[in-house]
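Appendix B.2, paired examples.
Example (i):
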Amino acid sequence: MLETLKKRFEENMNRHPDLLWSTVEERLKEKPEVLEVLKRMEESGGEVDVIALPQGKLIYCDCAKETPAGRRSLCYDEEALRKRAKNPPAGSATEQAGQMGVKLLDEKLYYFLQQLGEFDTKTSSWILAPEEIRKLGGALFCERRYGRVFTFHNGADSYYSVRGWRGYIEL
């Protein structure tokens, strides 16, 4: 796993221009449980990479060009899944993220990721929905089209074959 992460780190320096691999490797060795989470993210198609956030935090985030293939066709959360009587999906984004040990990207983090590359040009990703939207039965997702990043809404119980979710874990 470390070799995969190191190779992706070196191939995508624009995501962490002032960061040394030795710093990342040291943090990963201090938190071996993070490697297990990253392995699960990788196995589901996340193509995880470290990202240096403006406030100095380091996160590992799904950086696959399209929303991870192993995390698609899911509604937003378990409440929406329970309420969906006809044709329920196999699961929910928030439940899958929780089982994996990661958090869904929020809108701000999703837009930050999009500054580092072009993601979700053919797919879309559920993002963390604000409580006031979720209370009304809705949820949010984002995608990149026409050279721009968009945030949309949908019923939390909806699901599509090209909509999945992106997650992250702090390092």
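Example (ii):
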Amino acid sequence: MAMSTLQRITGAALYFGTLLITAWLLSAAIGEDAFNTVNALFNSILGRLILFGYTWALLHHLAGGVRHLIWDTGRAMDKHTASKIGWATLAFSLIATVLVWIIALSVR
């Protein structure tokens, strides 16, 4: 039940994150000053924390979608297995988020 609630919360967070990506793209289209302003906001500690959370929400929502696809096949429906898949979803999203950020910061 907790993973189902978290799936809904991450879905809602993705709407907010999509607005951030839209603001970033629009600022690039508007001009250099607007783009530099948005980049400065994203490069702040709060901005990076929000982007980290968005990355986690995206990857958690992805893993939750895969979990639901598995359930759609009729597999892993018993309580014990469903609980294990829920924990695996959480573990994957956290590990993948950290890896994405490590790669992004090292390439940067």
